[in-house]
Amino acid sequence: YGHYSLNTCLIWNEIQQLVKSSFCFFIALLVLVPKATGYERRMHLTLMVVSMFIISLLASRFLRIAFREQFARRTLVIGTGYEAARLGKISNNNRFALTNVKGYVDVNKTNKLYGFKQENVIKHSKVYDYCKIDEAISNLEIEQIIIALPEASQRVTDKVMSDIYGKVEAVKYLPNVNGTMTFSSEVQDFDGQLLIATSNDKISTLDKIIKRLIDILVGIVGVLSLLPLILFVKYKYVKSGDYNNIMFSQERIGKNGKLIKIYKFRSMVPNAEVELERMMEENSRIKEEYLTNKKLKDDPRITPVGHFLRKTSLDEWPQFVNVLKGEMSFIGPRPYLPREKDDMGQYYESIIQLKPGVTGMWQANGRSDVEFGYRCKLDDYYYHNWSIWLDLTIIYKTIKSVVYGKGSL
């Protein structure tokens, strides 16, 4: 299962590989070890396998972090757009991953790529002009190049591939998949022709039952803990001098496009929608920011208590009522506003195939730091690549985001 390789992977991929290998090892022991069928013997074997799993995971994490500088591939990213910035953030923020992004290449300042342009969002990093790509490879001692130009034409991609051919040990590129490729896709050799067989996977009936059972269990726990939380939030608001209703409901797009009413703790001033319209009329910058991201980074409508609720994600807690009612899932796409339907574009049809979630891909990957278009891409990715393992990964990453308070507002 690749456990002993030095391939780049993240901690949850390593855990998945270890679970598979440990399970197979346990089955092999039951078959091969004499008298392994007794209850006491099986318990001893189980304890041994679990101990090996924990030790292996800790050892793998320690070794990858301790020897990261020696084994991580020195990487150059061609591109300075949102995808390139995200690749760099994932690579350098995950010490477990053996990819070390040393710099970026700006493709805007060249006439070699047929006038292709890309948004530049890279800050505080080494950025080289495309015409100096050989200099970047030499100065940074690059071993690997990642091409992060998913919106580029085939002609531009071919030109980039040609310019870096044979100059580094490994080349990877980020394709513009748009739901056409999933992790179930296969690379096939068709008599010398390389074909990619794609598939639009759908959640099976059994998977739907498992997911719903998990939602019911999580919903029960969430609703039972809601009553003391209501008292706590009410106390915080009254203490701050705010005596208005602490609950807030709003129409959102549910499964199959059906409108549902979701519940949240109020984190803004009363009549926040009216206040937003007024602010947008008076300030063009606010209007542009909201129309682009569907959120305001420093939203003046958020109350002091609301800042606390959002930072800890407690404002979402009443949505467990929606989960128990079957209108939402614990994990799923973001519950979009009806007015955002047109902005969702091509992703709308895939996103509405699932129930919206209390948490999901975009919350686990930066929350409000993720711009609107990329949120839709992440939710589309979730639809095409759903698995129980992906849900477990999202739960882990969501908890991590909440603990560190990243992208909370």
Per DSSP E runs of 2 or more residues, the count of β-strands stands at: 11
Helical residue percent band: 40-55%
Radius of gyration (CA) equals 24 Å
Number of helices, counting only DSSP H or I runs of 4 residues or more: 17
Order of helices and strands: HHHEHEEHEHEEEHHEEHHHHEHHEHHH
* Poorly predicted ranges: none
- Adjacency order of strands in the biggest sheet: 3-2-1-4-5
Instruction: Please state the oligomeric state of the protein chains shown.
Output: single chain
Distance between the termini: 39 Å
Largest sheet: 5 strands, parallel
Q: What is the mean predicted local confidence, pLDDT?
A: 86
Strand content: 5-15%
Protein structure class: alpha/beta
Which geometry do the CA atoms define? globular
Q: Can you describe this structure?
A:
The chain is an alpha/beta fold. The chain is 48% helix and 13% strand. The chain has helices at residues 11-32, 39-66, 68-71, 82-93, 133-139, 154-164, 205-224, 226-239, 272-282, 284-293, 304-312, 319-325, 341-344, 348-351, 361-364, 372-384, 388-404, and strands spanning 73-78, 99-106, 127-129, 144-147, 170-173, 186-190, 193-197, 247-253, 259-265, 329-331, 357-359. A 5-stranded parallel beta sheet has the order 3-2-1-4-5. Strand 4, helix 6 (154-164) and strand 5 form a beta-alpha-beta unit. Helix 1 (11-32) runs antiparallel to helix 2 (39-66), helix 7 packs across helix 12 (319-325) and helix 9 (272-282) crosses helix 10. The longest helix is centred in the first third of the chain and has 28 residues, at 39-66. The two termini are 39 Å apart.
